[in-house]
Amino acid sequence: MDETQIKNFKQQLLQLRSELMSLSSTSDDAAKAVELDQSAVGRLSRMDAMRAQSMAIEAKVRREHQILSIEGALRRIAAGDFGFCLTCGEEINIRRLEVDPSYSLCIKCADK
Asked: What is the model's pTM?
């Protein structure tokens, strides 16, 4: 993999991290505790609100995991290890990295 490709992947990773972080800060309200006052909200509305809260919490966890993966990829770029499988050390196929540049495993190791 050449320097231009690595530079492009780094730019993609930085942009994606920025988008995820801004999305995370705007969606924190959805994960707040659900109002359980029966006089203020009906039972079905509370159930819908609780379901929406659970989905918001799960989405937040997935975003945080993805941000950690992106930061790991950025560290590998800085260390010169980007594009190599963390398990077997083989080069990760460029097409796999084009799908998600934060991948840290080759397809063989990911399938195991």
From this structure: 0.79
